[in-house]
Specification:
This protein is an all-alpha fold. The chain has 7 helices and no strands.
């Protein structure tokens, strides 16, 4: 995510799309690890993971959101908190889909929910993020 956030060949919207694509590929690539972490007997690992991921991702997301404000794509006075909200919303909306088929309608619907919520938080027009993601996919 850090590498994507610092890619100066992309605008903020393109970076956000790349972040979503990275998130999906990360979930696919780490499915076995995530099942292990989410096992009842590994609650300590789950807590560490839940604490560490937001810490590592807020910075790159906030950087992208600030760029988006500067570029006139996003309209929020609080890009740092928007990044935190993004993490919280994504975690809640995607809860329980770790083992779901990523091509399933339910998985796709949940991403559309995230796009809708983040568009509202970032002050973009309806469909800006979801349309950019669909065009890139």
């Amino acid at each position: 995510m850090e590498k994507i956030s610092k890619d100066y060949n992309l605008n903020a919207l393109d970076k956000l799309v790349k972040i979503f694509e990275f998130s999906v590929s990360f979930r696919n690539d780490t499915r076995g690890i995530m099942q292990y972490v989410n096992d009842e007997k590994n609650v300590h690992l789950q807590r560490k993971f839940e604490q560490r991921i937001p810490f590592e991702t807020v910075g790159p997301l906030a950087h992208i959101f600030k760029e988006g404000v500067d570029e006139g794509i996003f309209n929020t006075q609080y890009p740092d908190y928007a990044a935190k909200a993004f993490n919280g919303i994504s975690a809640m909306v995607l809860q329980g889909v770790d083992s779901a088929d990523h091509d399933s309608d339910e998985f796709k619907r949940r991403f559309m929910v995230i796009f809708d919520f983040i568009e509202r938080i970032l002050g973009t027009e309806n469909g800006v993020i979801s349309n950019a993601f669909m065009e890139d996919s």
